[in-house]
Automatic annotation (TrEMBL):
Sample GO molecular function, one term: outward rectifier potassium channel activity
Region of interest called Disordered, as start-end residue ranges on this chain: 22-87, 719-744, 1087-1131, 1248-1274
Composition-biased stretches (Low complexity): 28-70
Compositional bias ranges of the Polar residues kind: 78-87, 1251-1265
Name listed for the protein in its UniProt record: Potassium channel subfamily T member 1 isoform X22
PROSITE patterns given in the database record: RCK_N
Keywords assigned by UniProt, alphabetized: Cell membrane, Ion channel, Ion transport, Membrane, Potassium, Potassium channel, Potassium transport, Transmembrane, Transmembrane helix, Transport
Superkingdom of the source species: Eukaryota
Catalytic activity reported: K(+)(in) = K(+)(out)
Locations listed in the record: Cell membrane
């Protein structure tokens, strides 16, 4: 604005001047006869034309008088003019010399001044008062320019130092040349030329002439003089430029003194010829060359911006120092020995090497005292200088080992590497990452660069020194927030960056904040580098939404623990899926369950395009259900999901209405991916050999003959009855009137979905039953529930899920289980009269992640009659923000208490609970001693096992290695055998060495660190996180199915095999099975002393268990063939084992007495625990009807509650149960009673009309429209 106003003022002044000149030219002064009217005398004297009368006004540049002036003013003016004319001959009009007063109104700007000058500036005006200011004028001086060229500028100073270094090397080379051409007896007419040189004289007689005078040829002298002159001028110039006020500081520098010694004598010889052969110690220029080389290396590193070169510089300085000492000693000794024993330059060099290496052969030694004195001086200098250099080198070496050095740019551009950013690196975290990352064949050539701000741990250092990892893993100590450290790790050239949070921190929110800053720094430094971020708290997830892949620990943890309550061992299932394995674990074990369990653990999720696949290419145009069943039947692979080419969402089991297309991406479960599989068609081989082909199950494992015959019979029946049965999703045995004695039939899977075959009532049988056919008793439980989306989300980024909700939000006071309020007077779980068993969650605080525990258990696809009440047992009461988020869910309560308090457990209804989930506490995750963070949790859980043996307890541990202490028994030989098996698998390099631990196999223990591999595996399989979120219910995609489970009962055993079950589910309800959770009895071997003891009481308990098994087997048996029923085979084996134990030689009487005393002690302990619990219940006013004594447990209780993994040793020392997961078992796997099958059920809403999909949630949400959503806590 100031420029604009200045420009405008200048324009106005110029216009006024131009206007005044124009008016003066147009109106010249009038001539009058009276003298006072004369305006100027010169026109009067000359006879010039009238037109020249206007020149005086132009010369004066004064404007004419104003026309507005009054006539009364003229007489006074004229009188003044008359007075002036009388005094002088020239009469001037004063008014013409004054500036014309500008009119009050500012005249308008001419067109040429309005826009052009505003854009171009006021450059054409002469009356511009602006001043041009030049900056940094101090650098324009001659001295500053020289300093910029010689010192400040990196590249020019590098060239100057390179030239200086070359000169010094040249002088040293000329000295060696002069020595080689030197003749000691000829000194070219010098004053000492007549001195007689007696080589045989005594060493005390020194010929000083040959020391001070040498033979120097003219060409050598000329070159040395030229070099000395250049060096002298350069030294003077550098001294002048480096002068800072103290000239003596510059003069007494070692480099300046050496320059004067080596250059001034040669310059003097120019003016005094007799001194041309004087000795000058030019070999001392090697030290100046050393200094120039150091400066040159520093300038070179500064020019290429290499800052971390201290180690290289120190090693270089040490080498140069050794060379200079040896060269100085060799040249000095050789010259001094000219006066004594003549030594060549090589002899002197040999003597210096032998002396400095402390060998000292003594064959070559100095003879005169000057050379001997020089040797002493050199040794003293070496003893002072070299230790300092070595100390500095050792210090830098230690520091470089801590920092880890650099990852070179050349390696980063020619090799592939990933960066792992962590706040603290532990051995478990490192090994999990390395084992999982390098488990993939195409990642074998990758390098891992670890960037950690802390010093490397001793155990980590020991691991990284192993040749397997030392060549591929590089540890760098540094911060991801520093660009220098990111440059050292070459983050911009990395293939990926993994940023992991420290879960063992007390303040997990602070750990997340550090992770967020690391992710921001990495994204800012390397925008194109893919980021794989692990976050702890779900409320912090949206800060790293820009990352390519994000895994929120608490989201996955709580969702997995929730599914463990409705689908047993979901944690084991997902953990095995996200770990890379070849299925070779346990194959050498004598146990059958370990071999099949280890074999099935090798199944993983892979993907392939349909048009490129041999597994699924033939099913183009067929339904998804048809492709999944026939691919499993033919190849043994399980197709679980698909993704359209034009859609980014993965659909798990989209149902039979989804027609497979060539561009679709198929997601399947198999031992290995299709690209690494070979295909051997057995049908062709059998045709060539003349063997009849069954054509049903060409699976990797061959079917028994009776299974093939049974399957062929089934096909025949299917052809007679092709219409699909309109039944519910339950697998029931047909009535006797329908099928008679023939085996039941299974409908074929259709290639194209038939609308009549897919009924909403089939897929939503539970829901329709709940809505239409509920009895009065059941209506009191779920009739008030509605379906809708939760109105309040506790954090940003939670996926909206359609859930069962309350019509009206429950008041906060009604959410408290143990305290009554004005709305409800219930104070314990018994008073509520719940129809289903409770699910109790023990946590320290009500974090936002706990919301993900409730949502999967209240999802819309869960049948209302199967909803379990949820009780949150919290150490600290939740805040109102969390209560606002959960008050819309039905049957969700909280209570303040801990699991180590028996009263709190009883008040929250533990005797009515089906599952107890113990969440790892944040305050105990960090311990002074490693692996002690789980001590309190393990002991508390073990106490609850003793108090409530029928309770299913799911425990989360901080360290996976501590799971061996769950259900711990000191004399359990079978657990010891499993421990040895674990060590063997770990030595083989297995990623799943812990898989054979019984608590993990049964899904009773879980550690969130087991899911770290999910983030690592997503580097190769970018879809794994999405599939895991769909399986756990964290994300809901329209048209995608969900994970659930079904139990094999007695009525379902007619299906016989897993392949037939696959066909049954696909044809009837379009469900895809993916695995089996199996529980079986097992005879755990114990010590020999225990086997030899025969106790009647123990036999009584075993007889009771066997009698129960016999009755169950009698009810389950349908044929006379004993081999057709697995329970009968087990019964016979157990009976044989019992007979063999009875035939053992009886033990001594003392052993029997000790065993009876032990049984009495155990019985008293059980009674004591029972009385303790009952007394506390009576004290709290709770009914004791629900609590039963431990001794009254039956085998059916244990078989139905497989959570223990074994029966309590107080009851039976030998008869136990174990549970494990079989992922994608072979089609000929025989189903057993109480097997739980994992199935992916298609989305019920995908098969309903569009109005029914949207109308119901809208009606359910009408009650929540009037309520505003609270602010989400950040």
């Amino acid at each position: 604005m100031n420029i604009f106003f200045n420009m405008r003022g200048t324009i106005v002044r110029q216009i006024a001047e131009d206007r005044a000149l124009a008016e003066a030219a147009m109106n010249p002064p009038r001539r009058t006869s009276s003298p006072p009217r004369r305006t100027s005398s010169p026109p009067r004297r000359t006879s010039s034309p009238p037109r020249r009368t206007s020149s005086p006004p132009r010369r004066t540049s004064s404007p004419p008088r104003r026309p507005s002036s009054s006539p009364d003013d003229r007489p006074s003016t004229e009188s003044v003019q008359m007075n002036n004319s009388s005094n002088s001959g020239v009469i001037l009009d004063i008014s013409t010399l004054k500036m014309a007063e500008v009119d009050t109104e500012v005249p308008p700007l001419p067109p040429r001044y309005r826009f052009r000058d505003l854009l171009l500036g006021d450059q054409t005006f002469q009356n511009d008062d602006r001043v041009q200011v030049e900056f940094y004028v101090n650098e324009n001086t001659f001295k500053e320019r020289l300093k910029l060229f010689f010192i400040k500028n990196q590249r020019s100073s590098l060239r100057i130092r390179l030239f200086n270094f070359s000169l010094k090397i040249l002088t040293c080379a000329l000295y060696v040349l002069r020595v080689s051409l030197d003749d000691r007896e000829d000194v070219n007419g010098d004053p000492c030329a007549k001195c007689q040189n007696n080589s045989t004289a005594d060493s005390a007689d020194i010929n000083w002439c040959v020391i001070f005078w040498v033979t120097r040829r003219e060409p050598v002298w000329a070159i040395q003089v030229t070099v000395a002159l250049i060096s002298f001028l350069e030294t003077m110039l550098i001294t002048y430029l480096s002068y800072k006020g103290n000239i003596w500081e510059q003069i007494f520098q070692i480099s300046f003194i050496l320059e004067m010694i080596n250059s001034v004598p040669f310059i003097i010889t120019i003016f005094w010829c007799p001194l041309r052969n004087i000795f000058v110690p030019v070999f001392l220029n090697c030290w100046l060359a050393k200094g120039a080389l150091e400066n040159m290396i520093n300038d070179f590193h500064r020019a290429i911006q290499r800052t971390h070169s201290a180690m290289f510089n120190q090693v270089f300085i040490l080498i140069c120092t050794l060379l200079c000492l040896v060269f100085t000693g060799a040249c000095g000794i050789q010259h001094l020995e000219r006066a004594g024993k003549r030594l060549t330059l090589f002899d002197s060099f040999y003597f210096c090497i032998v002396t400095f290496s402390t060998v000292g052969y003594g064959d070559v030694t100095p003879q005169i005292w000057p050379s001997q004195l020089l040797v002493v001086i050199l040794i003293c200098v070496a003893l002072v200088v070299l230790p300092l250099q070595f100390e500095e080198l050792a210090y830098l070496w230690m520091e470089s080992q801590k920092l880890g050095g650099n990852y070179s740019r050349h390696r980063a551009q020619t090799e592939k590497h990933v960066v792992l950013c962590v706040s603290s690196l532990k051995i478990d975290l490192l090994m999990d990452f390395l084992n999982e990352f390098y488990a993939h064949p195409r990642l074998q050539d990758y390098y891992v660069v670890i960037l950690c701000p802390t010093e490397i741990d001793i155990q980590v250092r020991r691991i990284l020194q192993i040749p397997l990892w030392s060549q591929r893993v590089i540890y760098l100590q540094g911060s991801a927030l520093k660009d220098q450290d990111l440059m050292r790790a070459k983050m911009d050239d990395a293939e990926a960056c993994f940023i992991l949070s420290s879960r063992n921190e007390v303040d997990r929110t602070a750990a997340d904040h550090q992770t967020i800053l690391r992710a921001w720094a990495a994204k800012d430094f390397a925008p194109n580098c893919p980021l794989y971020v692990q976050i702890l708290k779900p409320e912090n997830k949206f800060h790293v939404k820009f990352a390519d892949h994000v895994v929120c620990e608490e989201e996955f943890k709580y969702a997995m623990l929730a599914l463990n309550c409705v689908c047993p061992a979901t944690s084991t299932l997902v953990t095995l899926l996200v770990h890379t394995s070849r299925g070779q674990e346990g194959q050498l074990s004598p146990e059958q369950w370990q071999r099949i369990y280890g074999r099935c653990s090798g199944n993983e999720v892979y993907h392939i395009r349909l048009c490129d696949s041999k597994f699924f290419g033939e099913y183009d145009g067929k339904s998804f259900t048809y492709a999944s069943f026939h691919a499993h039947k033919k190849y043994g692979v399980c197709l679980i999901g698909v993704k359209r080419e034009d859609n980014k969402s993965i659909l798990l089991n989209p149902g039979p209405r989804h027609i497979m297309a060539a561009p679709d991406t198929c997601y399947y479960i198999n031992i290995t991916k299709e690209e690494n599989s070979a295909f051997i068609f057995k049908q062709e081989e059998k045709h060539n050999k003349g063997i009849p082909v069954s054509g049903l199950y060409d699976a990797p494992s061959r079917l028994p003959v009776h299974s093939i015959i049974a399957s062929m019979g089934t096909v025949a029946i299917d052809l007679q009855n092709p219409s699909p049965p309109e039944e519910s999703s339950k697998l029931t045995l047909p009535t006797e009137n329908g099928a008679g004695s023939r085996r039941p039939s299974i409908a074929p899977v259709l290639e194209i979905a038939d609308s009549s075959a897919i009924l909403p009532c089939d897929l939503l049988s539970d829901q329709s039953e709940d809505e239409n056919n509920q009895s009065d008793e059941e209506g009191s439980v779920g009739s008030d529930f509605v379906k809708g989306y939760p109105p309040n989300s506790p954090y940003i980024g939670s996926s909206p899920t359609l859930c069962h909700l309350l019509p009206q939000k429950a008041p906060f006071c009604c959410l408290r289980l143990d305290k009554g309020c004005t709305h409800s007077s219930f104070e314990d779980a018994k008073a509520y009269g719940f129809k289903n068993k409770l699910i109790i969650v023990s946590a320290e605080t009500a974090g936002n992640g706990l919301y993900n525990f409730i949502v999967p258990l209240r999802a819309y696809y869960r049948p209302r009659k199967e909803l379990n009440p949820i009780v949150l047992l919290l150490d600290y009461p939740p805040d109102n923000h969390f209560l606002e988020a959960i008050c819309c869910f039905p049957m969700v309560y909280f209570m303040a208490g801990t699991i180590d308090n028996l009263d709190n457990l009883l008040q929250c209804g533990i005797i009515y609970a089906d599952n107890l989930v113990v969440v790892d506490k944040e305050s105990t995750m960090s311990a002074e001693e490693d692996y002690m963070a789980d001590a309190k949790t393990i002991v508390n859980v073990q106490t609850m096992f003793r108090l409530f043996p029928s309770l299913s307890i799911i425990t989360e541990l901080t360290h996976p290695s501590n799971m061996r202490f769950m259900q711990f028994r000191a004399k359990d030989c079978y657990s010891l055998a499993l421990s040895k098996l674990e060590k063997i698998e770990r030595d083989k390099g297995s990623n799943l060495a812990f898989m054979f631990r019984l608590p993990f196999a049964a899904g009773r223990v879980f550690s969130i660190s087991m899911l770290d591999t999910l983030l690592y595996q997503s580097f190769v399989k970018d879809y794994m996180i999405g599939i895991a979120r769909l399986l756990l219910g964290l994300d809901t995609t329209p048209g995608s199915g969900y994970l659930c489970a079904m139990k094999i009962t007695e009525e379902d055993l007619w299906i016989r095999t897993y392949g037939r079950l696959f066909q049954k589910l696909c044809s009837s309800s379009s469900e895809i099975p993916i695995g089996i959770y199996r529980t079986e009895s097992h005879m755990f071997s114990t010590s020999e002393s225990q086997n030899s003891i025969n106790v009647p009481q123990g036999e009584e308990h075993r007889e009771r268990g066997e009698s129960w098994k016999e009755k169950k087997a009698h009810r389950n048996s349908t044929t006379s063939d004993q081999s057709e029923h697995p329970l009968l085979r087990k019964k016979s084996m157990q009976w044989a084992r019992r007979l063999s134990r009875k035939n053992v030689k009886p033990s001594s009487r003392a052993e029997r007495i000790s065993q009876q005393r032990l049984n009495l002690y155990r019985r008293s302990e059980r009674q004591e625990l029972s009385e303790l619990v009952k007394n506390r219940m009576k004290h709290l006013g709770l009914p004791t009807v629900g609590y039963e004594d431990v001794s009254n447990l039956t085998a059916s209780d244990v078989m139905n509650r497989v959570n223990l993994g074994y029966l309590q040793d107080e009851m039976n020392d030998h008869q136990n149960t174990l549970s494990y997961v079989l992922i994608n078992p072979p089609p000929d796997t025989v189903l057993e009673l109480n097997d739980i099958v994992y199935i992916i059920r298609s989305d019920p809403l995908a098969h309903m009309p569009e109005e029914s999909q949207t109308g119901q949630p809208r009606r359910n949400q009408q009650d929540f429209v009037s309520e505003t959503r609270d602010e989400t806590h950040l």
